UniProtKB/TrEMBL annotation, chains A, B:
Annotated source species: Pseudolactococcus paracarnosus
GO molecular function, one term: 3'-5' exonuclease activity
Taxonomic classification: Bacteria, Bacillati, Bacillota, Bacilli, Lactobacillales
Pfam family, one: DNA_pol3_beta_3
Residues making up the signal peptide according to the UniProt record: none
Keyword Cytoplasm: yes
Protein purpose: Confers DNA tethering and processivity to DNA polymerases and other proteins. Acts as a clamp, forming a ring around DNA (a reaction catalyzed by the clamp-loading complex) which diffuses in an ATP-independent manner freely and bidirectionally along dsDNA. Initially characterized for its ability to contact the catalytic subunit of DNA polymerase III (Pol III), a complex, multichain enzyme responsible for most of the replicative synthesis in bacteria; Pol III exhibits 3'-5' exonuclease proofreading activity.
The family this protein is said to belong to: Belongs to the beta sliding clamp family.
Alphabetized NCBIfam families for the sequence: dnan
Protein name: Beta sliding clamp
Amino acid sequence: MINFSINKTAFLNNLRITKQAISSKVAIPTLSKIKIDVSTEGITLTGSNGQISIENFVAKEDENAGMLISQPGSILLEANFFESVVNNLPEITFDFQEIEQNQVVLTSGQSEITLKGLDVEMYPRIQEMATENPLKIKAGVLKEIFTETAFAVSTQESRPILTGVHLTLTDNKLLKSVATDSHRMSQRIITLDKLSEDFDLVLPNKSVNSFKSVFSDDDTELDIFFSSNQILIRNETISFYTRLVEGNYPDTNRLIPSEADYTLDLTFDVANLRHTMDRAKLLSNATTNGTVKLTISGDTITATVNSPEVGSVHEEITPLAKSGDDLTISFNPQYLIDALKVIKEPEVRIRFISAVRPFTLVPKSDTLDFVQLVTPVRTN
Amino acid sequence: MINFSINKTAFLNNLRITKQAISSKVAIPTLSKIKIDVSTEGITLTGSNGQISIENFVAKEDENAGMLISQPGSILLEANFFESVVNNLPEITFDFQEIEQNQVVLTSGQSEITLKGLDVEMYPRIQEMATENPLKIKAGVLKEIFTETAFAVSTQESRPILTGVHLTLTDNKLLKSVATDSHRMSQRIITLDKLSEDFDLVLPNKSVNSFKSVFSDDDTELDIFFSSNQILIRNETISFYTRLVEGNYPDTNRLIPSEADYTLDLTFDVANLRHTMDRAKLLSNATTNGTVKLTISGDTITATVNSPEVGSVHEEITPLAKSGDDLTISFNPQYLIDALKVIKEPEVRIRFISAVRPFTLVPKSDTLDFVQLVTPVRTN
């Protein structure tokens, strides 16, 4: 019969981390619950939507929690409802007491709220994993390479493998993140400080997003473990499990042009080019093929969109540097906007081959191993 | 052929005021447009959704606008699209030039955007009104009495008259705002500084909300004019027209109990009582009748909700003052929450007659002529 008292705010913060794995729209009703396990060491809050599972441990010693555990035990409670109730308690601490089997009373100030729960035996078990030889990485580093690539995943379920982010480790140290929807691609490679075992897996994009919000502290050190169908990412308190996308990711290396193919090399101010594309997009949304036309002729670069019904954009762009041949190329401005958004440096180098071949973007400084690709649209 | 230049931010701010009358979901396609009338005196931006119409005048002398008018004229442009385009222009000013009939070019920096418009003859005319003997009132005062009452309007279309706010002037100076959905009522009366002609009308709640956001400056002095089916509220630059709800509003005066009827008089801390009701609501949402039970017995006041499936709340409330008989009464906690939300003073006086008669709330200080009524729910 569980009995503990705890600081309300600290408990809510932990509850909300676990709740990121809990969806109210799941087919299995038990998964709308949160599992609360109280031991003499602390409290573990577990949530799962079947794809992602989070175990969050609040240690007895946690100073913010000010926890006092009188009796251990376990219970399942309706997650959303439980969070609302705790959130509305009047005092800064509350008591959590199981008064009869699977029924708890929360007491805070003059308020007593009784909640009916379920037996933890009803909760599905998280598939166990071997926790040896972790890949070690800082949360901020992993989040950054996901941000630089995951936006390019496909949202079409027709090729499920492309809805995930392809994460590989080669040569025991080269960590590569790639995403493509077959219209554009983004690839980032970093070199790890510590050697680790090679792997090759595809993470669902939803899991990537959850991961980013669950590990909010960029400085936290993560241990990552792999099995054939799931990975576990954990720090001292949070264990984040996610299933993988099944199947083989296509070979994206062959998409990247070789240096010799390029015929035109331009450098732009990232912010200026992005604003030009923002304006172009307003009009291109009203055209049938949804493209902007870039005309590079001598020293003049012009972006144009022409919608017979709505109007047109005509804009000159001044590149910071230019070398190569003239070219006229059309593409979806949204792809260029998305690509420019994840380039943190002020200048971008864009290289072209022809009007029908993908063009590439790299940050101008080129100290990062970060390349993006956008496929043009054949017009006329 | 219109030609002017203007500060982008100032123009956008004015455009957004007018746009509050423009809905993209209107049956008449012309109403998705904004009407731009340029005279030698300034620019008038007009928008309408058929119920509400806004004319917003930007004077040539407006310092923020930095306007330069070369040629007057009028045009209709697609409102949402036009706003997006202006918002994305690169420089702090832009030129607006009509290059051929109903086609304009916006030029800003290196960017040239051509927009196709329509002839202003296609735009419906706003019904004219006699603008004599206005009621004069500060925007902040009118907004406050709307805030105190409009939340109680009905959302049910079965009695359209109750979906509006009943606004009356009697004795040439008593301005009363009332709203009720037949479960609760809120009534606020203020005395005007200047005498005005009596009136009796019902404002649609949507118009009340628009009015509050259009006149964002509480200190602005408003002139209000009435006709049989619309009112005009205006200050120096904005004219806000709205149609009225047709029909006769029920007599709500008879709902307010006479002093002699009360049998129980309680005073509460507004914030504490509201938090208790917030918690009660969490559980009452899961019950069949959706009520909280208040038991007043001697010096003890208890709020309870019992949901057989979900759980229960049991909470003691300490009143700041009490006189009168014991009582047990059940009601929807949301109505009490809504009522407490609009009481700015720290204490509220609640008086009861019986378990089946409405109870009343007034701010404790009682310097305001502000009364609210909540109808209880008869349980078992």
